[in-house]
Amino acid sequence: MKKTLKRLVPVLCTGVLIFSGCAKQQAVKGDEAIAPSAVTQQAAPARVQAPTPAPQAAPATTALPSSAIKAEPIQSQPAPLTQKEVALAGALDKIYFDFDSDALSDAARKTLTENYAKLKAMPNVKIRIEGSCDERGSDEYNLALSERRAQAALKYLVSLGLPASRLSTIGYGEEKPAVAGHDEAAWAKNRRDEFSINK
Predict the structure, then answer these.
(1) What's the CA gap between 25 and 145, in Å, rounded?
(2) Cβ atoms within 10 Å of 177's Cβ, excluding its own
(3) CA torsion sign, 43 to 45 to 50 to 52?
(4) For 105-150, what is the HEC assignment?
(5) CA pair distance 194, 150, nearest whole angstrom
(6) One digit per residue, pLDDT tens: the chain, 199 residues?
(7) DSSP of 136-196, one letter per residue?
(8) Which of 7, 41, 101, 154 has the CA that lies 20 to 30 A from 137?
(9) What is the crossing angle of helices 106-120 and 139-160, to 10°?
(10) What's the CA gap between 93 and 176, in Å, rounded?
(11) Are 104 and 115 spatial neighbours (Cβ–Cβ below 8 Å)?
(12) Is residue 157 part of a domain?
């Protein structure tokens, strides 16, 4: 019996210590939860009796570190085209291609060089190069070929010194024939690049 009591006494003492420690922790937690609300209730009337002026907003530069501030670029509207520029842009000559080819012929290079001189004289004009094909070939093939033809003209104009930002391309395939017909004379006129003002 004495041996059993000797074994139970330490266990009971440990249990009492643990239980009393938990009770204190709960009481402290409860006191902490009550304390802020009591302080808030006491401080609230003081704020009502003595209102403070509304704080002024701080400038954005002081609120953010300078590394976080990004300047927005100023977008300037391009100057409207003059009648002369519109007329000159309308005077850009077409170039033509051989059957199933996007290679620039000597005649096409000469025409592009003349077009470059006109475009250099009107820096506000942006141009769209429109590639086209004759009616032979599938729609998908002709669309790709017409885009390659427009890209060939763009690359040549850029190599002459025209900024690429002033140029764009589109391929129409066989959708916009210049000449109606189903013979070589008509097809030769339809294998072309045209130049129009890009609005």
Answers:
(1) 82
(2) 17
(3) positive
(4) CHHHHHHHHHHHHHHHCCCCCCEEEEECCCCCCCHHHHHHHHHHHH
(5) 9
(6) 556 666 666 666 666 556 555 444 444 444 444 444 444 444 444 444 555 555 555 444 445 555 554 555 555 555 566 666 666 656 899 999 999 999 999 999 999 999 999 999 888 899 999 999 999 999 999 999 999 999 999 999 999 999 999 999 999 999 999 999 999 999 999 999 999 988 6
(7) -S-HHHHHHHHHHHHHHHHHHHHHHT--GGGEEEEE-TTSS-SS--SSHHHHHHHSEEEEE
(8) 154
(9) 60
(10) 17
(11) no
(12) yes
Domain contains 72: no
Structure tokens, 166: 């002033």
Structure tokens at 190: 């339809």
Domain with residue 127: its CATH number is 3.30.1330.60
In a domain, 184, yes or no: yes
Length of the chain, please? 199
Written as six digits, the tokens of 38 are 């009591």
Residues 129/153, Cβ–Cβ less than 8 Å: yes
Residue 29 belongs to a domain: no
Whole domain around residue 167: which residue ranges?
Answer: 83-197
Residue with tokens 């060089």: 113
Number of domains in the chain: 1
